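Propose amino acids for all 267 sites.
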């Protein structure tokens, strides 16, 4: 298994120092957009270290199950369809399945996707699930998950790593986990992730069936207290945009694949 917490080299420390100093200067000058840009320059190795802090909080809520195995198998299949230009970094994507009725999915630093049982219960086809997984892979491709941490928390992380404050990192992990669960991406970020997911879906199945189905149903259930509804744009708008894109590109619509039995039967 790939080491998710490798030692930091002198070269990485120098790069981190440069990012750290630039972040301080830009925060003093109030240039928040440039701060976002520098957050995206955080090396993948340091992102793995951040993931090593945050992921255990979600792992404690998960449990080994056929459902989690199936979800990882589906994620592996989808990963083979990633565009080469978006897969230049050696990534090791995996999925954590949490048996909780929350309707949500999120991308964590460290190449990890979290999916809740509540979301799985809402699905009516495997295609819908693959669209959601593709959407989360889109956030990784664009590194939206780092921006979702928040400028302040990202800066705290950089400072804590730079000064070697182990206690600060432990305390920061809880704050980051909470922040990630509530992270809201911009409309353009969500649209780009949907576009990425749609392309993966078509690449995998050869057609676009199921791309908009989940969002259409969410749009009809707006009274329900879904975590996904509070952290994502209106599902009706997303389904309309996807439907229009499918029509404009003349993607075929064929038969949908059923939800795997291991997911339907999971308590």
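Proposal:
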């Amino acid at each position: 298994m790939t080491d998710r917490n490798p030692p930091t080299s002198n070269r990485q420390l120098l790069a981190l120092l440069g990012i750290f100093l630039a972040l301080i200067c830009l925060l003093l000058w109030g240039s928040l957009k440039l701060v976002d840009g520098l957050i995206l320059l955080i090396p993948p190795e340091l992102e793995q270290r951040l993931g090593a802090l945050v992921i255990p909080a979600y792992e404690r809520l998960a449990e080994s199950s056929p459902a989690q195995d199936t979800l990882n198998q589906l994620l592996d299949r989808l990963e083979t369809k990633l565009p080469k230009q978006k897969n230049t970094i050696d990534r090791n994507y995996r999925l954590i399945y949490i048996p909780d009725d929350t309707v949500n999915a999120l991308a964590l630093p460290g190449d990890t996707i979290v999916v809740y049982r509540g979301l799985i219960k809402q699905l009516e086809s495997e295609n819908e699930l693959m669209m959601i997984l593709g959407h989360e892979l889109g956030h990784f491709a664009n590194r939206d998950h780092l921006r979702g941490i928040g400028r302040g928390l990202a800066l705290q992380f950089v400072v804590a790593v730079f000064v070697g404050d182990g206690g600060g990192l432990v305390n920061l992990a809880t704050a980051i986990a909470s922040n990630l669960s509530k992270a809201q991406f911009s409309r353009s970020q969500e649209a780009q992730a949907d576009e990425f997911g749609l392309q993966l879906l078509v690449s995998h199945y050869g057609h676009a069936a199921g791309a908009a189905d989940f969002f259409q149903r969410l749009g009809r259930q707006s009274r329900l207290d879904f975590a996904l509804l509070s952290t994502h744009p209106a599902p009706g708008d997303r389904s309309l945009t996807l439907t229009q894109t499918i029509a404009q590109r003349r993607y075929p619509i064929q038969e949908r694949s059923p939800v795997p039995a291991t997911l339907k039967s999971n308590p």
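The mean pLDDT is 77. Residues 24 and 220 are 46 Å apart (CA to CA).
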